[in-house]
Give the backbone structure.
Amino acid sequence: MSIDESAFFSTMSTDFRPEANWRSATGKGVTVAIIDSGVDGFHNDLSGRITESVEAKIDKNKVVFEPSSAGDSAGHGTACASIIARIAPDAKFASVRVLGAGGLGDGQVFLAGLEYAIKKRYKVINLSLGTTKPQFFSPLHDMLDRAYQAGCIVVAAANNLPQPSFPSVFSSSLISVIKSDQSDPLKFGFHYGQVIELTAPGVNVRTAWPGGGYRNLTGNSFACPHIVGIIALLVENNQNMTPFQVKSALYAIARENQEAS
């Protein structure tokens, strides 16, 4: 027996079609956890937007998170947060710093940062990072299942290299994003059946940079926060949206984009 996927998703997108006024939302009341290199809360684009800032510390071979005023160690987290802020200007941010200088980090610290955000029940989590090490496949898979069950909407960037990275390949329990050369953040695409389903702007994207500056950056890392910003708009008026409903709403919007092009 076969299923007519186009008919199925047409019904699904109708059931979970976003509210008509979602484009006029601002992300008010939504806090996004940025698991990254930190966020520069003194940048004009992000001032007053940071509700929590913590960083990973190793204490007796255990990862703990302590309040941090260190800002951004690599610029990456600030760049991602600024993209979200541009799309959802009233969204707030929780900075969970797991990367050090140069954007380098340890897989166990990454896992601990994700677990921290899930336990805090942050509704939307931006993961513009991942790992290719196979030993993290299983623990990340289990953690993403827990996030899904907790109602956390996790959005992950695909690897910039052809090698698959975790957790972006876990498309059943999170939303995975790869870059396109589209410039309009609302004109994202959805490719059902592919491992990485969402495409969003990620080429020559203008972003904030620590110290008050700006940079134009390219990569899947910067496509991911475009989708996170859209999700903040969708969630504003319905804080109880499940990850499945959010993905369905994104699919419905992407179909509208395709039909209008």
About this structure: The longest helix spans residues 243-260. The chain is about 30% helix and 25% strand.
